[in-house]
Amino acid sequence: MQFITLRQFYPNDKSLPPLGKTLWWIPSATKNLALINAANKLGTELLHFTELYNSALDHIDLMREYYNWQSLRPYECFSYCQYPFILSIVAKRIILTKDSEQQMILNARKSLVSKVARRQTPNIDIFFLNINVRRSHLVQDSLNEIAFKQKDLKKKLKVTFAGEPGLDMGGLTKEWFLLLIREIFHAEYGMFVYYSHSRCYWFSTGQMDNTNLREYNLIGVLMGLAVYNSIILDLSFPGICYRKLLSPPVVPTVNNDNVGVVENPTLDDLNEIMPDVANGLKHLLEYEGNVEEDMGLTFQVSLEEHRTPKTHNLKPNGENIPVTNESREEYVNLYLNWILNVSMYEQFRAFYFGFHSVCASNALIASALMLRPEEVELLVCGTDKLDLHELRKATEYDGYRPDDNIISVFWNVIESLSDDQKRKFLLFVTGSDRVPVGGMGDMNFKITRGPNRSDYLPEAHTCFNQLVLPQYPNHDLLKEKLVTAILNAEGFGME
């Protein structure tokens, strides 16, 4: 790894041979790392995949590497994208963002050419995916807009809330995602079941009508739009969800092919969702007594969703087939496959096609080689690690200086907040309480000098991650006004 870094960023003292004479050095070293990566995947991973990241490569011309990989035939030219395990998630995010921007420009240009060809007067709206919704009918309006504007999904997203004066420069888009996901994942909606032991959501087994499948498709589209528009979502899905999203990573040409099916799911997969059930099945496999007499199990699975118990047969006439010492492994395998694949196949299928309707043509997502399921999760959800010291170091100031007393007081107030209040502060100023890939040091955060009025509240421009901080005279008043602002911030208004 150090050898690759030294050769990529060669010293000026001419202590190493010139790159022109050693073109094979970097490819050879990378192929050696590829052997380590392949060996690491053969069994239990001894190295975490992030240990093979070379973060120094974040600073090379990544788009040139990407376009070389896309345009040239195999073995015609070396590109780090041929060995994606070496590229960090930050590097992949940079490539994904740049590539998405290029696709947005291309799709906007196509719309303009189409308008001109038909001798129609173009307007600014043709360059965007314009979502117009009412807060009171958020889900239904969003479903209708996305269904009606399928051909525009690859354009830059702009959101308008009916009856509100806000112009979307990014902030309203974040709020739309936040409110829509909050509503769809609500327990009363019945689409997802929340498991408190693992603090994650999983697909409900009882939602099978066309309306519900449209809504699962909408959630998939939302995830795809989030990745495509570099928006972080607060989703609590288990890791197996992202493996299913990449199964297969390229959408099949035949629509009736199986999608979203994980082969041979394990107890570890179930443990991410239902740790208590996974422990029970593990105990069953290890039980040394007579399973049939002592446990009285049959080939059925019982599941409680939204306080309603449901029972399903794992095989025909399963209620009359006892689980024995000899058949318990078959029972566990059927149980895992039912929970993680069979019971919610149609729901996940709609979700899968929704996600890939936005991301399918993007080579980064479409390539099985480029992204791991864990990396897709990071791109969708970011990280929940708050490092306010990193944010402070990256903050810019307009009208204030970093050493002003009010700025020191402000950061002391932020440090004194509870974890929940810190997240609400992040939500207040950025429109999301999640931290993007790369950490808080990569966020563009600005504090702007506000009026010298103690009765004013701090304001936020979430489009630009900007806080307008009035000139408060003391610590207590600053904390009172800031907490009031962050606990009462939703919607857009000018008063």
Could you provide a short overview of the structure?
The protein has 495 residues and is α/β, with parallel strands linked by helices. It is 45% helix and 9% strand.
Describe this structure in words.
- It is a single chain.
- By secondary structure, the protein is an alpha/beta fold.
- The protein is 45% helix and 9% strand.
- The protein is built from 19 helices and ten strands.
- The strands form four sheets. The protein has a four-stranded mixed beta sheet with strand order 7-8-10-9, covered by helices on one side.
- A hairpin with a 4-residue loop joins strand 9 and strand 10 (466-469).
- It is globular, with a radius of gyration of 26 Å.
- It starts with a helix and ends in an 8-residue tail after the last helix.
Itemize the secondary structure elements and their pairings.
Layout: H1 2-8, H2 25-40, H3 62-71, H4 89-117, E1 128-133, H5 138-148, E2 156-161, H6 171-184, E3 192-195, E4 200-203, H7 210-228, H8 239-245, H9 267-271, H10 275-286, H11 291-295, E5 300-305, E6 308-313, H12 328-342, H13 345-359, H14 363-366, H15 373-381, H16 388-394, E7 396-398, H17 405-416, H18 419-430, E8 446-449, E9 459-461, E10 466-469, H19 475-487
Parallel strand pairs: 1-2, 7-8, 8-10
Antiparallel strand pairs: 3-4, 5-6, 9-10
Helix pairs in contact: 1-2, 5-7, 7-13, 8-15, 18-19
